């Protein structure tokens, strides 16, 4: 995996206007953010100087000037995230209480500070206060921030780019979008900087721990055409995976079909009774020194689908910290990534009608 430096990321002082388009499962929202203040210097966390990276400028969200002391060591997303207040029974909770329960690692005290700094807004851009009434289905905008954001010391690759579509291959450990402690260190923000296109939006996603192909829409006008390819199952997807085995299985091919729902804790998934919503095809390709290599073809695209299906077949993936057993939380081990790669996607371009196939240059650690 190509590496990128984590040191000497000196912030540049910018006066900048950003136009951002945020998309979530609740829809799209156009949003203009105007920065008319200097950005304070900010450290990205512990250094990996031996990897040698060039500096990258970063733009902070609203409140950076008032919060100057804290942002000396805090990463703040320049792009808004959206959370929708769900329907629930009365009496309704306060908005800070909801946010505390929805994002337990942030805590109510930090949410109150964000509100005081004007970093939580409604769809009209009106600041949310602790006294703002809870209204079911109301959408809130906020700017993700994290102290001492971890640096992922590997580079992504751009495999294809035109005015409508960008195809990238991401490394292991890098999230596609901001989440948890990751704000700037995500594929989306890296590509927005590289391409100077604030309208980039992921069409598909893969787990942070997984490496491989991710498609991005580059224009709002054609975004739905590429999204519909995945929604209607018109994209062929191929993954490569490796696991340890004690003895060779009697079969070499399987079709796994079951129902996947949210598990406990919230970031894990589990199977449950009911109508199947997840289908995967699994093929054993070879075995070498008690390591089995598989080709996986997901028909559907549920979160952690392949990891869970392989685990249920008795083929837990190498270096999987979630399945079959949740391991204690610990720092990423960059020398031992999850052995799962989104290797290939194929589809017919909805605009030109041209057959398109993209393949990841990344390989498993111990290929046969």
Distance between the termini: 18 Å
Biggest sheet record: 11 strands, mixed
- Assembly level: single chain
Backbone structural class: alpha+beta
State the CATH superfamily name of the largest domain: Pseudouridine synthase
List the keywords.
2 domains; alpha+beta; 6 helices; three-stranded antiparallel beta sheet; single chain; Pseudouridine synthase; 30% strand; 368 residues
Structural summary, described in words:
By secondary structure, this protein is α+β, with helices and mostly antiparallel strands. The protein folds into two domains: 16-147, no CATH class; 234-368, Pseudouridine synthase, CATH 3.30.2350. It contains six helices and 18 strands. The strands form four sheets. Strands 8, 9, 10, 11, 12, 13, 14, 15, 16, 17 and 18 form an eleven-stranded mixed beta sheet that branches. Strands 4-6-5 form a three-stranded antiparallel beta sheet. Strands 1-2 form a two-stranded antiparallel sheet. A hairpin with a 2-residue loop joins strand 1 and strand 2 (27-35). It starts with 15 loop residues before the first strand and ends in a 9-residue tail after the last strand. 31% of the residues are buried.
Task: Summarize this structure briefly.
This protein has 368 residues and is α+β, with helices and mostly antiparallel strands. Helix content is 14%, strand content 30%.
Question: How do the helices and strands line up, and which of them pair or pack?
Answer:
Layout: E1 16-24, E2 27-35, H1 68-71, E3 74-76, E4 81-84, H2 95-102, H3 108-116, E5 120-122, E6 139-142, E7 145-147, E8 157-161, E9 165-170, H4 187-195, E10 201-202, E11 211-217, H5 220-231, E12 236-244, E13 253-262, E14 269-272, E15 278-288, E16 291-298, H6 305-312, E17 340-348, E18 355-359
Parallel strand pairs: 11-17
Antiparallel strand pairs: 1-2, 3-7, 4-6, 5-6, 8-9, 9-11, 10-11, 12-16, 12-17, 13-14, 13-15, 15-16, 17-18
């Amino acid at each position: 995996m190509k590496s990128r430096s984590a040191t000497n990321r000196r912030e540049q002082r910018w006066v900048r206007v950003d136009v951002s388009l945020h998309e979530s499962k609740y829809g799209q929202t156009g949003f203009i953010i105007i920065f008319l203040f200097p950005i304070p210097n900010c450290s990205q966390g512990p250094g990996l100087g031996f990897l040698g990276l060039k500096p990258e400028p970063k733009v902070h969200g609203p409140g950076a000037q008032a919060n100057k002391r804290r942002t000396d060591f805090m990463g703040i997303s320049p792009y808004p995230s959206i959370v929708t207040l769900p329907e629930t029974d009365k009496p309704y909770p306060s908005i800070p209480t909801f946010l505390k329960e929805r994002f337990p690692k942030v805590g109510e005290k930090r949410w109150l500070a964000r509100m005081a700094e004007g970093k939580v807004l409604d769809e009209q851009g009106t600041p949310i206060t602790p006294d703002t009434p809870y209204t079911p289905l109301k959408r809130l905008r906020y700017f993700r921030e994290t102290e001492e954001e971890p640096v992922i010391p590997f580079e992504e690759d751009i495999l294809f780019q035109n005015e409508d579509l960008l195809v990238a291959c991401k490394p292991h450990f890098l999230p596609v979008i901001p989440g948890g402690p990751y704000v700037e260190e995500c594929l989306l923000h890296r590509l927005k900087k590289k391409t100077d296109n604030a309208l980039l939006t992921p069409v598909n996603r893969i787990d942070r721990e997984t490496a491989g192909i991710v498609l991005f829409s580059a224009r709002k006008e054609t975004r739905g055409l590429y999204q519909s390819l995945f929604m209607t199952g018109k994209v062929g997807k191929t993954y490569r995976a490796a696991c340890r085995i004690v003895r060779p299985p009697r079969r070499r091919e399987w079709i796994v079909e079951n129902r996947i729902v949210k598990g406990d804790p919230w970031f894990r998934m589990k199977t449950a009774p009911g109508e199947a919503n997840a289908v995967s095809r699994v093929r054993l390709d070879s075995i070498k020194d008690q390591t089995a290599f598989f080709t996986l073809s997901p028909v559907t695209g549920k979160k952690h689908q392949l990891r869970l299906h392989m685990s249920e077949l008795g083929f837990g993936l190498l270096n999987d910290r979630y399945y079959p057993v949740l391991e204690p939380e610990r720092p990423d081990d960059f020398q031992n990534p999850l052995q799962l790669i989104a290797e290939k996607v194929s589809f017919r371009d909805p605009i030109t009608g041209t057959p398109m196939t993209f393949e990841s240059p990344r390989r498993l650690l111990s290929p046969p």
